[in-house]
Amino acid sequence: MNPTFRFAPSPTGLIHIGNLRTALFNWLQAKKTGGRFVLRFDDTDQERSTRAFADGIETDLAWIGIVPDLVVRQSDRVRLYDEAAERLKSRGLLYPCYETPDELDRKRKRLAARGLPPVYGREALRLSAEEKARLEADGRKAHWRFLLPNHDGDPAITKRSEVHWDDLVRGPQTVDLASLSDPVLIREDGSYLYTLPSIVDDGDLGITDVVRGDDHVTNTGVQIAIFEALGLTPPRFGHHNLITTLTGEGLSKRSGALSIDALRREGYEPMALASLAVLVGLAGSIEAMDDLDALADRLDLKDVSPSASKFDPAELDRLNEDLVHRLETPAVAGRLKRFAVPTDDHDAFWQAVRANCSRVNDAAGWREIVYGEVPHPADLPGEDAAFLRETLAHLPEGPVDEGTWSAWTKALKAATGRKGRQLFMPLRLALTGLDHGPELAALLPLIGRERIAARLGG
């Protein structure tokens, strides 16, 4: 069977570059192995999940180049989770608990004060039917925990129970189920937490490989136990390091920090984001890859660092600039059109300005300089002003082309004796309003004789 990978975001906010890292690890591995990629929206939290966020996530992924083979929504699949929960309940593996959050917190604090691990003591299993009925009559509603297989028949007596897997990223891993509390799978209001729906979906959809953040390592031991309790084959798991800010803070969908949507609106190229999201924290240099195929060739899960990787905005700027300087005209033609660059000038304009663009959007500014109104430079020394008044008389006749600048400056040098910066800078200031920018030899044909004359006072 071909490998099947998945990315399972909760549509409760905008995905950020850390989420993109997970999506790309799964997408690129699917691409490399000839497998399938499933986008699953974990939207059982009806209060915070929205269709708008889900649509935004699909848009962000498509902008990067990630198009899933299948899209599913957990809100459409609740019947499957109900059936799985009933199977576990019928076998005594999912049991009701009535403690309030405050009561549980006090229990954990008492255990900590005694130097004991804050593991749930399974007190609810000792409740009689009458005690449960009395609690329910008092208005208590049960939450439901999965009984971990860490005992020999008496849940009150736990024993070391190791779960092993060969992690796709981290290598051999072991979790002792005796060190963990029985996980809550169903809340008091009957809604599902992440765990059970995810396991049921992975089994039903034939997910063979799951690459996710290393904050899920301990969860994996629990989830493997639930897979086996439901008679499902667990996928192969891999846990990559997380991306933090430079100050070490985690990223959050709800805060919008470094969201793909915001970075796109700021004018970054999709492959700049993709390259940084994948290559940060991997062996080798961080380079701007031209496409996802090249990025897939670079990705080896065994090269992922075990330590958290820090997102450096300056690194993203560097990658973006590298990509922009390599972009050919067809890749930016649509944006040049939006900037109102004349269609016939697209190639000449882009070839002239791209080396001076950190983002393609910078070309909009150069468009104004070439085709718009340029303010006459103020405060020029008297000799420079006099020099500019003389320049038009030496502008070569005929069409303004790539050879015009060289012929013009040669004539000006002979006529005025000026050379170097003394000759070039007053002209640049008058023609562009700036003391830096693209080569004037390439800009002059775009500016044209009429605007050249107007800017020189002719």
TrEMBL record:
UniProt short sequence motif 'KMSKS' region, positions renumbered to this chain: 250-254
Domain named Glutamyl/glutaminyl-tRNA synthetase class Ib catalytic: residues: 6-317
InterPro entries associated with the record: aa-tRNA-synth_I_cd-bd, aa-tRNA-synth_I_codon-bd_sub2, aa-tRNA-synth_I_CS, aa_tRNA-synth_I_cd-bd_sf, Glu-tRNA-ligase_bac/mito, Glu/Gln-tRNA-synth, Glu/Gln-tRNA-synth_Ib_cat-dom, GluQ/Sye
Start and end residues of each Aminoacyl-tRNA synthetase class I anticodon-binding domain: 383-456
GO cellular component, one term: cytoplasm
Stretch forming the signal peptide: none
Positions annotated to bind ATP: K253
Span(s) of short sequence motif 'HIGH' region: 9-19
Keyword Calcium carried by entry: no
One Pfam family named in its UniProt record: Anticodon_2
Record GO biological process: glutamyl-tRNA aminoacylation
Subcellular location: Cytoplasm
Coiled-coil ranges from the UniProt annotation: none
Catalytic activity: tRNA(Glu) + L-glutamate + ATP = L-glutamyl-tRNA(Glu) + AMP + diphosphate
Keyword list, A-Z: Aminoacyl-tRNA synthetase, ATP-binding, Cytoplasm, Ligase, Nucleotide-binding, Protein biosynthesis
MF annotations from Gene Ontology: ATP binding; glutamate-tRNA ligase activity; tRNA binding
EC number from the UniProt entry: 6.1.1.17
HAMAP family: Glu_tRNA_synth_type1
Family under the similarity heading: Belongs to the class-I aminoacyl-tRNA synthetase family. Glutamate--tRNA ligase type 1 subfamily.
Summary of subunit composition and partner proteins: Monomer.
Function comment: Catalyzes the attachment of glutamate to tRNA(Glu) in a two-step reaction: glutamate is first activated by ATP to form Glu-AMP and then transferred to the acceptor end of tRNA(Glu).
Name of the protein this chain belongs to: Glutamate--tRNA ligase
Annotated organism of origin: Fulvimarina endophytica
Lineage start: Bacteria, Pseudomonadati, Pseudomonadota, Alphaproteobacteria, Hyphomicrobiales
